[in-house]
């Protein structure tokens, strides 16, 4: 009986790491990172800016897969944590955020819906960095819309697109950051 050998091609996929950016201005004596907790009681404005970095890693992909990519598409979705502890996607991001940008990217949709889509060029690099900036609404204007103070998950999904604007297999990856939008009276808390 002849010996049989079986081979399989290793499955490789892209990875996305989405994290709060280290701040150039020390916003807190305890941490060099952007603030993810928003307290409407402590704010002098009704908005708070948050910066987060995404690193889209394609190093595990084959050369032919990387070569078929022409653009990177980033899609942002926003989820609110409900009373049962589950995250539910928001129907209109513009109710919660006043802006969302991705540096060096072309927006193909705005804040008026369930998601924001951005496209950037792709030149075959194994790691691509995207800087996102979003401004969270809070305070009186937030409350007047009947919105809930809660934890919010900002999910970012990255995919590699080919010449036909179709998704290249194995290149879809998602990650998220969570921010808290709250209204807490801290005057009675002693350190």
- Secondary structure class reads mainly beta
Largest sheet: 7 strands, mixed
Helical stretch count?
Answer: 2
Distance between the termini: 78 Å
What is the oligomer described by this structure?
single chain
Mean pLDDT across all residues, rounded? 84
Helix content class: under 10%
Computed over alpha carbons, the radius of gyration is: 20 Å
String of helices and strands: EEEHEEEEEEHEE
Structure description:
With 191 residues, the chain is mainly beta. The protein is 6% helix and 43% strand. The chain has two helices and eleven strands. Strands 2, 4, 5, 7, 8, 10 and 11 form a seven-stranded mixed sheet that branches. Strands 1-3-9-6 form a four-stranded antiparallel sheet. A hairpin with a 5-residue loop joins strand 4 (71-81) and strand 5. The radius of gyration is 20 Å and the shape is elongated. Residues 26-33 have low confidence and may be disordered.
Keywords:
191 residues, mainly beta
List the helices and strands and how they pair.
Layout: E1 15-20, E2 37-39, E3 47-57, H1 63-68, E4 71-81, E5 87-89, E6 97-102, E7 106-107, E8 115-121, E9 127-137, H2 139-144, E10 150-161, E11 173-182
Parallel strand pairs: 2-11
Antiparallel strand pairs: 1-3, 3-9, 4-5, 4-8, 4-10, 6-9, 7-8, 10-11
What's the quick description here?
The chain is mainly beta. It has helices at 63-68, 139-144; strands spanning 15-20, 37-39, 47-57, 71-81, 87-89, 97-102, 106-107, 115-121, 127-137, 150-161, 173-182.
């Amino acid at each position: 009986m002849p010996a049989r050998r079986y081979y399989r091609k290793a499955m490789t996929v892209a990875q996305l790491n989405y994290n709060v950016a280290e701040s150039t201005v020390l916003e807190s004596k305890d941490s060099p990172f952007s603030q993810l907790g928003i307290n409407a009681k402590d704010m002098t404005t009704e908005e708070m800016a948050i910066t987060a970095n995404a690193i889209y890693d394609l190093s595990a992909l084959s050369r032919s897969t990387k070569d078929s990519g022409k653009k990177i598409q980033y899609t942002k979705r926003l989820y609110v944590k409900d009373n049962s502890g589950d995250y539910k996607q928001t129907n209109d991001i513009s109710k919660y955020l006043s802006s969302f940008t991705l540096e060096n990217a072309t927006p193909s949709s705005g804040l008026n819906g369930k998601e924001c889509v951005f496209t950037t060029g792709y030149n075959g690099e194994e790691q691509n960095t995207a800087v996102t900036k979003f401004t969270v609404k809070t305070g009186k204007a937030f409350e007047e819309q009947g919105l809930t103070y809660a934890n919010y998950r900002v999910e970012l999904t990255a995919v590699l697109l080919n010449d036909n604007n179709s998704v290249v297999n194995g290149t879809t990856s998602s990650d998220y950051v969570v921010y808290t939008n709250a209204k807490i009276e801290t005057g009675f808390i002693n350190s």
